[in-house]
Amino acid sequence: MSTSTTPTDAKPARTPVGAGMTPRRKAVIVGGGLAAAKTAEALRDKGYDGQVRVITAESHLPYERPALSKGNLTKGGAAEGATTLSQEWYDSHDVEVLTGQRVESIDPNGFLDLPRGRRVPWDDLVLATGAEARRLDIPGAALEGIHHLRTLDDSDRLRRALAGGGDVVIVGGGWIGLEVAAAARFHGCAVTVLEQSALPLAHVFGPAFGQFLADLHTGHGVEIRPHAAVTGFRGDGHGAVAAVELADGSAVTAHLVVVGVGAVPTTALGAGLLAVDNGFVVDERLRTSLPNVYAVGDVANAWHPTLGRQVRVEHWDTALRQPAVAAAGIVGEHTAYDALPYFFSDQYDLGLEFVGLLTPGKTYDIVRRPGPTDREFVAFWRDGVRVVGAMAVNTWGLTSDLEALVRQRPDVSSSRLRDPDVPLADLTGRRLDPVPSVP
Question: Does residue 215 contact residue 223 with C-beta atoms inside 8 Å?
Answer without folding.
Answer: no
